[in-house]
Inverse folding.
């Protein structure tokens, strides 16, 4: 048996392995497989209506009686400077023309995902964990989420962010290292150039807070899991390795890109959504980025690319598709999520014993 | 006792802890203290004449009968485009004027450190390990170094670099993660934006080569050491933590900067020397960098800053001083090197046992 700790006991986990909720790539089947195998499955609710979110949770409940983590991105009402909008329109228009899509649309005023309807849903569906990215919603919203009975978690990319999350009442903090795929959770930090690698970040956050620390970023096999525990983590969050499971929602060409990626194939970009995120370079990242001062504010950049993404994907191309992946993508395996979860847990336990022998 | 492995046996180390040779900050007293405490002490020979290098090795031998690692940077004859030289001169001239230093000097044609005189020295002084940074010298030079009886090591920042070092006959490879302070060892990799965090890099290099892998980058306490072993490393190389020892050659204001640095205080810059290196931002990094397309080729950028550095340091300022440090600088302690080495070894061993309990 894996040695239990405060976090695994609180969340009733057999293994201290959390599947990263990963926005659109997560599915009820993936989350249920992980939870049923003894880990914590998660569903990203990025850009979902309350109705869609309810369907996703119901799908999970049909397949699992265990714990579920639902994840919401949080961001202030984004405003887009007109000159930035113009610059991006100039850069994207040739691609819109090539696909016969007309003019690049104006940025839409999308606001943060956690509205009244979503709150009502949480009260009804009672997920065991509600996690956030890019900080936390307002104190009163956090209290209303807590009142549903959910444990609350969010990501920190620096010690200062971890301290802030603890002071705001988070039950656990996800230490998100530089290696992690997808969006950097940075919300106090403003400079992606000073983001911290997992090996350095985890022990410094463990020293700074009293709440349990979940290590994430670059963890894709048993070696990474044992390393995270050596650093003082109470659990690990794994994203990219689960992307390669058949249960995740990843298109065939994106899967091919993941399976061919090497240790140094990913970079941090802001051109896909407006916020720094790690992925495999696609055409638009190569042409405009990976980092551009002209990228519209999150999530406007994604809105501008959405029609191109859809048109190109119909042709089997990933020119405008987010190919989020972390730096350990190479260590992943194309196996079902339950097998992966149990394999990781068993191999990590064996490796811990071997290390002390 | 620490479990021995091929690398520690070969180098006759009691502990698998290698003090990073760290250019000018390393001293014979530091290296001897580490070796005498059971680790492997190192001396950087960056920019040293053969005579100076000989004195450094003699100083070590007076204080230790154990193993020594000497380190040389390797780079092709650098050429500086005239427009880059002009741009940098424009940026530095106001600082030269402020210190009454006259015109910014033309870049000097410094070439790689390992010349005939240094080779003769190695043949005479027979250091147990000769390590390189930025790749390796020519095959014939490597063979002549090997003929002195030295084990040969170099740093890899990617799997491809590690494979190349193995194919060129390195006895061990140092996997240098993104977190590491000082110069990135990159020599095949050209894009600092795709450099890999230690937690992701070490296991991928372990999978790719048969020679022993030494983990470096973000390791400053027992937790990092155990994590490195969990990832498959045969030893760790530690730099920044040794900078804080009294035996290292670090000025008082630079020491103050190190002791105040936080997890996210360092960035990678190319303006100090012309090659990407991680350190605490100083005045010139903030004004011109941290990354600038106008930075002259390595090591010309450093040559241009040297007079300013000396003038400012006389005033107790670190405006132009390399404040190299890794992302775990906060985990360091101001204690003697022998105490640090023995403490790290003992605490790591205890933590390994605790992890499996």
């Amino acid at each position: 048996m894996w040695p239990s700790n405060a976090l695994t006991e609180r969340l009733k986990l057999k293994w201290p392995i959390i599947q990263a909720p990963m926005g659109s790539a997560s599915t009820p089947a993936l989350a249920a497989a992980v939870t049923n195998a003894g880990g914590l499955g998660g569903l990203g609710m990025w850009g979902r209506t309350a109705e869609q979110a309810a369907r996703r949770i119901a799908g999970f409940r049909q397949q699992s009686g265990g714990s579920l983590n639902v994840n919401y991105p949080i961001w202030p009402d984004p405003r887009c400077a007109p000159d930035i909008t113009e610059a991006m329109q100039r850069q994207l228009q040739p691609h819109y023309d090539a696909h016969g899509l007309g003019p690049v649309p104006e940025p839409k005023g999308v606001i943060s995902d956690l509205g009244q309807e979503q709150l009502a849903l949480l009260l009804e569906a009672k997920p065991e964990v509600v996690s956030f990215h890019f900080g936390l919603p307002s104190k009163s919203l956090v209290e209303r989420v807590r009142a549903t009975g959910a444990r609350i978690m969010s990501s920190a990319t620096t010690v200062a962010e971890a301290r802030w999350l603890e002071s705001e009442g988070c039950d656990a903090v996800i230490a998100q290292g530089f290696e992690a795929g997808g969006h950097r959770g940075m919300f106090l930090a403003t400079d992606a150039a000073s983001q911290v690698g997992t090996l350095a970040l985890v022990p410094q956050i463990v020293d700074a807070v009293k709440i349990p620390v979940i290590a994430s970023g670059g963890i894709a096999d048993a070696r990474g899991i044992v390393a995270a525990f050596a650093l003082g983590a109470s659990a690990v969050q794994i994203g990219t390795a689960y992307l390669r499971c058949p249960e995740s929602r990843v298109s065939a060409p994106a899967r091919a890109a993941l399976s061919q990626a090497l240790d140094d194939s990913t970079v941090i970009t802001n051109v896909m959504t407006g916020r720094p995120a790690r992925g495999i370079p696609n055409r638009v990242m190569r042409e405009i980025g990976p980092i551009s001062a002209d990228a519209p504010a999150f999530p406007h950049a994604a809105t501008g690319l959405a029609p191109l993404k859809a048109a190109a994907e119909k042709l089997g191309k990933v020119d405008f598709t987010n190919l989020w992946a972390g730096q350990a993508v190479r260590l992943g395996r194309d196996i079902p999520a339950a097998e992966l979860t149990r394999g990781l847990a068993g191999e990590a336990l064996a490796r811990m014993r071997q290390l002390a022998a």
